[in-house]
Write a structure and sequence with these properties.
Blueprint lengths: L28 E2 L2 E2 H5 L21 E2 L10 E2 L3 H4 L5 E6 L4 H11 L4 E7 L2 H10 L7 E5 L5 H13 L6 E4 L20 H23 L6 E5 L23 H4 L18 H27 L2 E5 L15 H15 L5 H13 L8 E5 L5 E3 L9 H14 L4
Parallel strand pairs: 5-6, 5-8, 6-7, 8-9, 9-10, 10-11
Antiparallel strand pairs: 1-2, 3-4, 11-12
Helix pairs in contact: 3-10, 5-6, 6-8, 8-11
Bound molecules: NADP nicotinamide-adenine-dinucleotide phosphate.
C-alpha cells in the first residue's frame, strides 16, 4: 500500500496493510515537508459526430485478477463476442492523470468509444492527441462539475446525440491542500465537496436512467475513491482525518456564510475537504448499490488505484512537495503506481468481465492483482450513506 514504508519515518506507526491496520501515529516531517502533506494522497458541445453503433465490433478485453504489474489485453474473449457495438464510457476529468490514462488503456482495446467529459475542451483534445488516442475512439464533451447547470447541460447534450451510456466513471477531482480560505462552486458549495461529490452525485443520478436503458452486456457506474478517506489505513490516519460528523455543514449548504464550508461543521481545511469528498464518493457508491443494483443490474463500484504521485492532483501543493513526493513514493514507501498502470487498473474496473460484483471497493496488491478491500467504519456506514444521499438530493435540486 502506498504508505506502508512510512514505517521508515520517525513516527510511532504500526501498520499491516490497507483495511487491516493497527495504527498509532504522530505527526513528523521529511525534508521540511510535513508527513501529513506527504501522505495526503501520498498521498460546447460535442466535438465530432458520434458513430455509435456503426462500427464493426472488435474483440479484446482487459483481464482481471492478474498477477502481473499491468493487466494484459486478452484477444477473442467470449464475453466480447456478445458485443454488437462498441461500448460507450463517459470518463469525467479525462484531460489528465488517471482519467487520461484510463481513456488510453480503453481506447487501445478498440472496443470503447470514450466520452472525455472535461471542463477544458482544448486541453482534453490536446491530451488525447498527446497520448495517441485514435480519433475514432474518443469524443470530448464539455463538463464543469463545479456548476450544476453545466452538469445538466452535459446530460442534455449527450441525450441529444442519442448516445447510449454503458459505463460512467466519476473520476475528476480537485485537491486544495494549501488553501487558507475556501473557494466555491457556481452554486456556492465549498469547491472540493461541491466538485468531487455534489457535481458527480447530480451527474450520476441524472444518467442512472440512461445506464438502465443500456443494452450493452454489462453496465457500470464507477466512482473513484481513495485510501485517504479511509481511516482504517495508515494514510487515512494522517491528520487532518476525514470525518463527516453529523453532516451539519452539508445540511447548511457548505456556503461558509450561514453554515460552515466543511461537512462536519468545522473550520475550513482544504486537505480534509478533499478526504471528506472521497468518503462521500465511497458512501454514494454503496447507496447506489443498495437502491438500484438488484432492479437495474448495474454494477456499482469504487476503487483506490494506488498512489499516482506524478499527477496534476498535487498541482496546488508547494514546489518542494511536488519535487520530493514522487521519489518518496517510488523509493521509500514503494507505494507508487505509474499513471499508465493506474489507468489500466481503472480500465479493468470498467471492462473486465470478471469484475461484475457490485458494491465493491477495489484495490490492488503488490503484485497488481485486484482484491475487494474493506472500507473504514465511516466510509461503510449505511445510515450515513442514506443521510448523505438525502441531503445531497436537496442540495443539487433533485427534490
Ligand atoms: N493521484 C493519486 O495518487 C490518487 C490517489 C487516489 C485517488 N485518486 C483519485 O483519482 C482521480 C483522478 O485524479 P488524478 O490524480 O488523475 O488528478 P488530475 O490529474 O488532477 O486529474 C483530475 C481531473 O479532474 C478534472 N477536474 C477538476 N475539476 C473539474 C471540474 N470542475 N469539472 C470537470 N473536471 C474537473 C481535471 O481537469 P483539468 O485537466 O481541466 O484540470 C483533471 O482532468 C481523483 O478522483 C482522485 O481523487 C488519485
Amino acid at each position: 500500500m502506498a504508505f506502508q514504508a512510512a514505517l521508515s519515518l520517525p513516527s510511532a506507526i504500526s501498520i499491516l496493510k490497507e483495511g487491516k491496520s493497527n495504527i498509532s501515529l504522530k505527526e513528523t516531517g521529511l525534508f521540511g515537508v510535513s508527513v501529513s502533506d506527504l501522505k495526503a494522497e501520498i498521498k460546447s458541445p460535442l466535438l465530432r459526430s458520434q458513430e455509435v453503433g456503426k462500427r464493426k465490433p472488435q474483440v479484446g478485453t482487459i483481464r482481471a485478477q492478474t498477477a502481473t504489474t499491468a493487466p494484459a489485453i486478452k484477444q477473442d474473449a467470449p464475453e466480447a463476442k456478445k458485443t454488437l457495438r462498441k461500448g460507450n464510457v463517459i470518463i469525467t476529468g479525462a484531460s489528465s492523470g488517471l482519467g487520461l490514462a484510463t481513456a488510453k488503456a480503453l481506447a487501445e482495446t478498440g472496443q470503447w468509444n470514450i466520452i472525455m467529459a472535461c471542463r477544458n475542451f482544448l486541453k482534453a483534445e490536446r491530451a488525447a492527441k498527446s497520448v495517441g488516442i485514435a480519433k475514432e475512439n474518443y469524443t470530448v464533451m464539455h463538463l464543469d462539475l463545479a456548476s450544476l447547470d453545466s452538469v445538466r447541460q452535459f446530460v442534455d447534450n449527450l441525450r441529444r446525440q442519442e448516445t447510449p451510456v454503458d459505463v460512467l466513471v466519476c473520476n475528476a477531482a480537485v485537491y486544495q491542500p494549501t488553501a487558507k480560505e475556501p473557494s466555491f462552486t457556481a452554486e456556492g458549495f465549498e469547491l472540493s465537496v461541491g466538485t468531487n461529490h455534489l457535481g458527480h452525485f447530480l451527474l450520476s443520478r441524472l444518467l442512472l436512467d440512461d445506464l438502465k436503458q443500456s443494452d450493452y452486456p454489462f453496465k457500470r457506474l464507477i466512482i473513484v475513491g481513495s485510501i485517504t478517506g479511509n481511516t482504517n489505513t495508515l494514510a487515512g490516519n494522517v491528520p487532518p482525518k476525514a470525518n463527516l460528523g453529523d453532516l451539519r455543514g452539508l445540511v447548511g449548504g457548505l456556503n461558509g456564510l450561514n453554515s460552515s464550508s466543511m461537512i462536519d461543521g468545522g473550520d475550513f481545511d482544504g486537505a480534509k475537504a478533499y478526504k471528506d469528498s472521497k468518503v462521500c464518493n465511497m458512501l454514494t457508491m454503496q447507496e447506489f448499490h443498495k437502491r438500484y443494483h438488484e432492479e437495474s443490474g448495474i454494477t456499482f463500484a469504487s476503487l483506490y488505484p494506488g498512489c499516482i504521485a506524478t499527477t496534476a492532483l498535487f498541482r496546488e501543493h508547494i514546489p518542494l512537495f511536488r519535487l520530493l513526493f514522487p521519489p518518496f513514493q517510488k523509493y521509500i514507501t514503494k507505494g507508487y503506481v505509474s499513471e499508465e498502470d493506474a489507468g489500466k487498473r481503472l480500465a479493468q474496473v470498467v471492462s473486465d468481465p470478471s469484475l461484475t460484483k457490485s458494491g465493491v471497493y477495489w484495490s490492488w496488491n503488490k503484485d497488481s492483482a485486484s482484491f475487494e478491500n474493506q472500507l473504514s467504519k465511516e466510509a461503510s456506514d449505511a445510515e450515513k450513506a442514506r443521510k448523505l444521499w438525502e441531503i445531497s438530493e436537496k442540495l443539487v435540486g433533485l427534490e
